[in-house]
Amino acid sequence: MRLACEPADAGKRLDRFLHERLPQYSRSRLQAWIRAGQVLVDGVPARASFSLRAGALVEAMPLDPPPLAARPEEIALSILYEDDDLVAIDKPAGMVVHAGAGVHSGTLVNALLHRFARLSGMGGELRPGIVHRLDRYTSGVLLVAKNDAAHRALAAQFSGRTIEKIYLALVRGRMARDTGRVERPIARDPVHRTRMTARLGRGRAAWSEYRVLRRFQAFTLLEVRIGTGRTHQIRVHLSSIGHPVAGDTLYGAAAGPRRYFLHSHRITFARPSDGHPVTVTSPLPEDLQAWLETLKEG
Q: What is the pLDDT of residues 75-104, one digit of tens each?
């Protein structure tokens, strides 16, 4: 890939220039190309901090990403429910579900491989047992399949929207209505590639329903039910109506005590073995409960 430096690019660091021109690649991957000598400025390998001049020619020769392998790691897990087919994990905030985007260890998958002898293989070698995901800093209930039959049964329930997923979210501002529904398609933000957006009028269909649980002077605690599972769905939908999740700086809120306030509180599904309905609940974590106790009632 050959990229010409415009006058506006003069003085920019090489790594910043590449990220602006090649947003489809992660920063970590671009940095790896630079370290490997695969990025040339006027025919010479350059450092990430190299300051560009107008008219310079930048040549990038992509490297294939290194192969990833999920390995067992002794990491504590909190089990909310378990049978022969599946396990419901109480995922802590900060834990990534599976490797990717520069994270190769300390994930939920690493912990699962250490804890369980058998997991579904339908998700591939990097995602054994993983039927659905939660964002890194979202805590709460997450279902994991132990075998392929259970994986297929759960995946069918998710795609058929028969699984009920209930979240707790604290949002900025006072919600005027006690209940509401947001039904807006979600797509990748064309400018900020780490974000999703519901403002383009196109993308993957998504809907979220909310109910007010408590009102505070500057915040509202919601119970949110989602019928689809798009990337960052609740965060995007609530931000799109002017009430970003508290602490979610990516979507317009001020920084919170440690993380944004979003918790996967309850999941109801049909047990793969016999179709019996099962409800698994995760209590609000201590850090989020402590956050609530600092707020003044409205």
A: 999 999 999 999 999 999 999 998 776 677
| CATH T-level topology, domain 2-60 | 3.10.290
Could you say which of 135, 178, 274, 287 is catalytic?
A: 135
pLDDT in tens, 1-11: 899 999 999 99
- CATH code assigned to 68-160: 3.30.2350.10
The topology under which CATH files domain 161-298 is Pseudouridine synthase (3.30.2350)
3-state secondary structure the chain: CEEECCHHHCCCEHHHHHHHHCCCCCHHHHHHHHHCCCEEECCEECCCCCECCCCCEEEECCCCCCCCCCCCCCCCCCEEEECCCEEEEEECCCCCCCCECCECCCCHHHHHHHHCCCCCCCCCCCCCCECCCCCCCCEEEEEEECCHHHHHHHHHHHHCCCCEEEEEEEEECCCCCCEEEEECCEEECCCCCCCEECCCCCCECCEEEEEEEEEECCEEEEEEEECCCCCCHHHHHHHHCCCCECECHHHCCCECCCCCCEEEEEEEEECCCCCCEEEEECCCCHHHHHHHHCCCEC
Domain coordinates in residue numbering, the chain: 2-60, 68-160, 161-298
Is 178 assigned a catalytic role? no
pLDDT recorded at residue 105: 80
**Residues 254-270 pLDDT 10s:** 988 889 999 999 999 99
